[in-house]
Amino acid sequence: MNDVNLVEIARRFERKQAQVAVTLATESAPLADGWMAFGGVGSYVNKSCGYGFGQEVTGADLDALVDFFSSRGVEPKAELSPYTPVPLLQALADRGFVLREFETVLYRPLRETEDLRKLSRGAPPGLTIERIDPSDDAAVRMFAEVSGSGFVPEGETLPESFLAMGIKGARTKGTDAFVARLEGVPVGAGGCETSDGLTSLFGTSVLPAWRRRGIQQALIAARLARAVELGSDVAAIMSGPGIPTERNAMRVGFLMAYARAVLVKRGAGLVPSP
What we know:
Blueprint: H1 6-24, E1 27-31, E2 34-38, E3 47-49, H2 59-70, E4 77-80, H3 86-94, E5 98-109, E6 127-131, H4 137-148, H5 160-170, E7 175-182, E8 185-195, E9 198-206, H6 215-229, E10 234-239, H7 244-251, E11 255-264
Parallel strand pairs: 9-10
Antiparallel strand pairs: 1-2, 2-3, 4-11, 5-10, 5-11, 6-7, 7-8, 8-9
Helix pairs in contact: 4-5
């Protein structure tokens, strides 16, 4: 990708976010050229995204968005790229949506001739990274536990609903799950999903005792190699602004593509979603 089209990257990434959410959800419904997804109270797949590019989002669509989530007891949530039309932003504001947070999307062009092994040369001696067999129940559960460990406060047990979502994600078509081991002990994990020439990296965690030792970068390198193997021309990562994931991604060649806005509509009795 010599001439990077950030609008096209946003279109591809936002469409992928919607597709993955629908795959993991227990209930979903289309919204213009995007989707709404619900995975249960407290689920991180509770979101609407992927719209605002190629089709007008009407007032009726937005009313349906509000009803879809509020009727299920959770806050309506809209995840939007910076290319969202201003009238759509205004229509959401008119319905009481407010900004909750920003997320950053980073991208990295991929080339078949690049030696990706150099990206993990700072990792501890003896570190191995393996792609797990999705039919191996024990391996999939272990991946979900390690991958999800960084998304709950240290020392807390991963909720069963979160664990179940991780297991389902690891077995989703187009997804590859990787585990990093030292002397046979799992120390980190991360997944990636590939479709339409774009590989999206997600769910990366390194256990606290092994952080700041290059393990996350090694997990990124392994998934980039898988992306090239599958013919992707670009990889993407979504991160919170300024957190270790963003810094580690930039160290191995990722660049800022755009910031996403997460808008929610708060209401009495409506539960926020992660």
